Amino acid sequence: MGMTTPPRTLAEALRARDDESLAGLLRARPDLLTPVPGDITQLATRAGTRASVVRALEHLDRFALQTAEALAVAPDPAPYDILLGLLTGDGRDDGEHRNDAGAAIVAALPGALATLREQALVWGENDRLRLVRTARELLSPSPQHPSPTGLGPTVAEATAGMSPGRLQEILTAAGLHATHDPVSAVSALSALFTDRTRMGELLDTAPVEALSVLDRLVWGPPYGEVTPNPTPPVKWLRDRGLLLPVSTRTVVLPREAALHLRAGRAHRVPEPQPPAVEAVAERDPQGVDSAAAGQAFLAVSTVEELLKSWNGGGPAILRAGGLSVRELKKTAAALDVSEPVAAFWIELAYAAGLLASDGEADERYAPTPAYDDWTELSAQDRWVELASAWLAATRTSGLVGGQDAKGRALSTLGPDLDRSAAPEIRHRVLALLAALPPGTAPDPESLLARLRWERPLRGASVSAGDTTDLRSRIALWTLNESEILGITGRGALASQTRALLSGGPVEAAARLAPLIPEPLDHVLLQADLTAVAPGPLERPLADMLAALADIESKGGATVYRFTPGSVRRALDAGQSAADLHAFLAAHSRTPVPQPLSYLIDDVARRHGHLRIGAASSYVRCDDEAVLNEILADKRSATLRLRRLAPTALAAQIDPASLLDGLREMGYAPAAESADGDVLITRAGARRTPPRTAPVPVPEGPPVPDPTLLGAAVRAIRAGDTAATVVHKDTGPAAPAGTLPRTTSAETLVTVQAAAMTGSAIWIGYVNAEGAASQRVIAPVRVEGGYVTAYDHTADEVRTYPLHRITGVAELADDQT
């Protein structure tokens, strides 16, 4: 869709675009699609709203933003050469470096302008470039909101309302011809400040102290405070208009004068090219992959260990939501990690849908049913699920321990940890790492500098007093979390992560599988009641060993220790002594030590000798001497026991507490049912109801897919046709919201005629909800009080009740 005349408005500029260009605009600014604009005029209006423009500016890179800032202080409209001059300067301070920068700006400016045009922030041909009004207002200077360029208002803006007499005094002091016409006076002063020769002659006569004052204001902020009796240098500048009054105590350096002092540049340091991400080390790619694979396996093991520890029901949930500080410390000690790292693992398990609230009255955290499915996967597939959940999660564990906007502490799994920018930042950090050669570890500072260049307006402090923007903080957290999760190894991106980013989960798992050690089916039993697992164990072996022994140390090899308590735990789970002996004999590469066999037999012989049930609770034992011993022990006073029979004692506490109390006294009781059978307790039975993983909080509207974009463009085009169509009866289309009006008989006749001739007509329509719209339709069939027609506005065939059509009009001949 070409244009023979330059566009006069943003709507005309958008109307001249082709469909691909309109789709690009909607892709770059998806907020414009909610809801789909009715026509091009609505699209242009929405693109100029403050909220939408702010969002668009936040997504610009530094040079595109600098280009927009230069346009905000340029004349409106501005020729391309004027814009280029504001970015490169007038050449008065050119050196070799400045020449190189100028060449880079000349090369980069067309691309920056193309970005601004694509996002509808700039429109017009190169000889009349216009920044949309809202963006100009946001980027223009004012005492409350100084310009990002550091430039002040123009002479005309600063002298608005100044008396003609004062203007004459300034012109006389500056050596100009005085005039009583304020417009001429302002023009003369502006011409002086923009004339390189005359401005240089004026500044040559300035006191040295006056030049120092200008040096402090030239790069901004351009405002300064003065006393009622200013110093001679300030008075010299004020008398000649180099400082113009804003209020009784404030003066400003006018824009034209500042640009002369800056050699015509709007920015001190234009940045047309992104800073490079520098390398700090070159690693062996295979070593990087191996290190990352080791961390990946450790990550999977750590999450599994965390959820196993919460198998019987995890910690209680705070009233305000989340995990208490004490429970976080307890979890960190159990995992043998720091508290921030423990918070990361907990949040990762939650983001992956493996952990959730159980929803009970006494609400606690517990594994979800999805955890059981996850444990059945291979190690590489489990890691892929964790890594994918981390990439998409908006919950940010690095915020734990900080404060929200109201000064309340942010807790693990609590509210207010979502940061919608986190997924985009993580992906961008990994994309920058992927752009480096394999095995290259980046310099974090250069990485942050690159991110700041790409999104200079996106920084927002996490809380009051922070000196680092949130985007940079998330980027640093991303680097740290990548290392402990196995995304990177020794600071460089692993090949399995490259596969995850480019090829997907299946390819990543296939790349990681050879690097994960195969699970073992054996352990090494030792005479000191320990077992050494020289590597990862097969799941049945690991689960059984976890019930039979306690983990003493972890690392390349895991050391398990057998104790009376751990053996009793296995017996409580339904194992017999014979089962335990057979299990150890089958899975040990060394003979079963005699002390371990004695330990199992001794605990098994005493296990279940005492029986506990509910009275509130009771203790039953065939050996009266054992019960006498319990009653005589002072430690049993807290259990409030009394004898019911020679072989039975009653207690006033619940069975679980009685079990724990007698075990602390050194006995090995077993719980029994109402029928007298021993109750078998199995770990890991508590699960939450089915839960889905938390949905990431989106950062604004999602980017539409190509199908939706195509449909939206067609709808906007069709709506624009309906809004701008010319029809025979009333000339140009009625104003927005005004529907055509005809009688029922006229409507029916016109629709029937259009159906017979196959022509299109313009109608007003009110749907069942009372919403009115204008449409262009091509009737196909009219019967039973309905018209079936191809709706150009909706780009589909629809049926309309005739009684809801307010009126019709035939299109002009050149429209059909």
Brief synopsis:
It contains 33 helices and 27 strands. By secondary structure, it is of the alpha+beta class.
Uncertain stretches: 460-467, 730-734
Number of strands: 27
What structural class do you assign from the helix and strand content?
Answer: alpha+beta
Query: Within the largest sheet, what's the order of strands?
Result: 18-19-17-16-20
- Helix tally equals 33
Tell me, rounded to a whole number, the average pLDDT: 85
Shape: elongated
**What is the terminal separation in angstroms?**
18 Å
Helix content: 40-55%
**Biggest sheet descriptor:** 5 strands, mixed
Radius of gyration: 39 Å
Percent of residues in β-strands: 5-15%
Explain the layout of strands and helices.
Layout: H1 10-15, H2 19-28, H3 40-47, H4 50-58, H5 62-73, H6 80-88, H7 96-118, E1 122-123, E2 130-131, H8 133-139, H9 155-158, H10 164-173, H11 182-194, H12 196-204, H13 208-217, E3 223-225, H14 232-239, E4 244-245, E5 250-252, H15 255-261, E6 279-282, H16 285-309, H17 325-335, H18 339-351, E7 355-357, E8 365-367, H19 369-375, H20 379-392, H21 422-435, E9 440-442, H22 444-454, H23 470-485, E10 488-489, E11 492-493, H24 495-502, H25 505-512, E12 524-526, E13 530-533, H26 539-548, E14 550-553, E15 558-561, H27 564-572, H28 577-587, H29 594-606, E16 611-613, E17 617-620, H30 624-632, E18 641-645, E19 648-651, H31 655-664, E20 670-671, H32 706-724, E21 726-727, E22 731-732, H33 744-757, E23 761-766, E24 772-783, E25 786-791, E26 796-801, E27 805-810
Parallel strand pairs: 16-20
Antiparallel strand pairs: 1-2, 3-5, 4-5, 6-9, 7-8, 10-11, 12-13, 13-15, 14-15, 16-17, 17-19, 18-19, 21-22, 23-24, 23-27, 24-25, 25-26
Helix pairs in contact: 2-32, 5-7, 5-8, 10-11, 13-14, 16-18, 16-20, 17-18, 20-25, 21-23, 22-23, 24-25, 27-29
